[in-house]
Amino acid sequence: MSHAAAPETPSNMLVLLITLVIQSLAAMALLTLPVVAPAVAQSLQVSAAYVGVYVAIVYAGAMVASLMAGAMVRRFGAIWASQFALLLCAFGLFVSVIPSVWAMAAGAALIGLGYGPITPASSHLLARTTPAHRMSLVFSIKQTGVPLGGLLAGLVVPGLASWTSWQTAFALVGLACIVCLVVAQPLRAGLDADRDVTQPLTFGTGLSGPLRLVFSYRSLRVLAAVSFLFSIAQLSLTAYLVTFLHEDLNMSLVQAGAMLAVAQVAGVGGRMLWGYVSDRFLGATRMLIVLTLMIAACAIAAPFMQHMASSVVIALVLVVFGSSAIGWNGVYLAEVARQAPKGMASMATGGTLSMTFFGVVVGPPIFGLVAGLTGSYGLAYLALLVPSGVCLWLLWRHRTAFLTAPS
């Protein structure tokens, strides 16, 4: 009797490419509304400031979904989970086309539920197919999908909205997500062969399981806490930079937007550079310590940027700020995959990522409160010394926790 040959596992390069594209489209879906917020707000007759509520709803959904992602990946497979996530993002965008505040809230929740499983699923795939000595670099390249998605949203969506309408722009981004999930279908046979149909998938277990796993290992606990603190710096930079440069430094919105693009591009380059440096020279702990010190240095420089005469000097500060505050994710995610028990990279990533998203939810509002109380966005950036200091203390105190990975 002949037996069908086992499906061949795709190459690491192909896995990296598809996970990068999926990550980019999910990030683009998340940022589709924020980059055209004034047009949407005018259509709905609400304040554009409500974009903060929209982002909070998205990341609240992402927190829940990231915790459920580990069990979903183990039962259905990482590619299937990624396809389902893209489908949720697409439906979220389609629902958001309805000119209603409640439809926008529902769309934000769907996009968040879709965004949450993307990184745990990709971590599962990359942990299986990437050589150990290249993990930080490969994970960092994949994580460039987040700022790349932001760049795509900023470059494509406003143009589409002005050429047609913001509703059409939303629908086209949703269709791009659908196309991507169809393109990924041929990879399911090889990459989802390790799925376990007996894996339980209950809501309570799905939420608590990843957290129990994270809190069972000291190294994962530390990484979760570090990601919470790093995400506060990252979202404070990206969410408030244009306002800071426009109001505190009197830059035009066009010039401030260009400076934000500089920081985002630096984040793309930083994710790849720090992954290489971590793999080749420093290791994850020392690399994260260096990035923490870079963020702290930029936080100290922020209040003095209004006295910097040259925009070139300001751009250089933002290159350092962007490369560190946006560029840390790949090194962190690769170390989570290393420290996770064998076969549980997606569950460990989901558990730690819930803390990352929690930092995204609470960090920017606290930053805005500090800016309002002090009357200065520069001083609010200076306050990032607090999470940076806690992060530095955690990494130094627990540096030996990363010397070995659990079996």
Describe this structure in words.
With 407 residues, the protein is mostly helical. 78% of the residues lie in helices and 0% in strands.
Q: Give the strand tally.
A: 0
From the 3D structure, determine the CATH topology: Growth Hormone, Chain: A
Can you identify the CATH superfamily? MFS general substrate transporter like domains
Helix and strand run:
HHHHHHHHHHHHHHHHHHH
User: Can you identify the CATH class?
Assistant: Mainly Alpha
Instruction: State the helical fraction.
Output: over 70%
Number of domains: 1
Main beta sheet strand tally, sense and closure: none
Quick description:
It is built from 19 helices and no strands. The protein is an all-alpha fold and 407 residues long.
Chain-wise SSE layout:
Blueprint: H1 12-31, H2 37-44, H3 51-76, H4 78-96, H5 101-115, H6 118-129, H7 135-143, H8 145-163, H9 166-184, H10 188-191, H11 203-216, H12 218-247, H13 253-282, H14 284-301, H15 311-325, H16 329-339, H17 345-374, H18 377-382, H19 385-397
Task: List the keywords.
mainly alpha, Growth Hormone, Chain: A, 407 residues, 78% helix
